[in-house]
Amino acid sequence: MAKSLNKVMLIGNLGKDPELRYTTSGVAVATFTLATNESWKDQDGNLQEKTEWHNIVAWKKLAEICGEWLKKGKKVYIEGRIQTRSYEDKNTGTKRYFTEIVADNMLMLDGKGSAQQADTTSSSSASTLDSPLPPVEKEEDLPF
């Protein structure tokens, strides 16, 4: 079978503070919105802008970090995968779909020359998640 890839990378601003909750089994989950902006000039030379809103969900240690460190308006890099869930609307009985980004990596971008990263993709980085990474000295040190 051919391999496939479900990978999303976003840089944007938080639309609200993350909402941190715990499942009945004690697993942390954080949800928040992220705004990405696009601008262009139309054929008349006028600047046009569009904002796209993304629903983000983070689990476990990454959820706790997001709940503690992220605030509305802050710029972040989110890496993860697209997931679509469906549910039945109780009022109309119609099937509704909800698309979200399941985050597995987060990098805080706000602050002059500083960045903090949280990554849940490898066990080696999990041990470093309890304390923020040291600040990056220059903006050109950022990986993008």
Please, could you describe this protein's structure?
The chain is built from two helices and seven strands. The protein has about 140 residues and is mostly beta strands. The protein has one domain: Beta Barrel (OB fold (Dihydrolipoamide Acetyltransferase, E2P)), CATH 2.40.50.140. The longest helix is centred in the middle third of the chain and has 10 residues.
Which helices and strands, and how do they pair?
Layout lengths: L7 E7 L4 E4 L5 E14 L5 E13 H10 L5 E14 L6 E14 L7 E4 L3 H4 L18
Parallel strand pairs: 4-6
Antiparallel strand pairs: 1-3, 1-5, 2-3, 3-4, 5-6, 6-7
Provide tags for this entry.
144 residues; mainly beta; OB fold (Dihydrolipoamide Acetyltransferase, E2P); five-stranded mixed barrel; 7 strands; globular
Quick description:
The chain has 144 residues and is mainly beta.
Q: Which CATH architecture would you pick?
A: Beta Barrel
CATH superfamily, by name, is Nucleic acid-binding proteins
Total separate domains? 1
Which spans of ≥5 residues are poorly predicted at pLDDT below 50? 121-144
Give the biggest sheet. Answer: 5 strands, mixed, barrel
CATH class, anyone? Mainly Beta
Give the percentage of residues in beta strands: over 45%
Structural class: mainly beta
Order of helices and strands: EEEEHEEEH
Extended strand count: 7
Summarize the amount of helix as a percent range: under 10%
Report, as a whole number of angstroms, the end-to-end distance.
33 Å
What is the C-alpha radius of gyration, as a whole number of Å? Answer: 18 Å
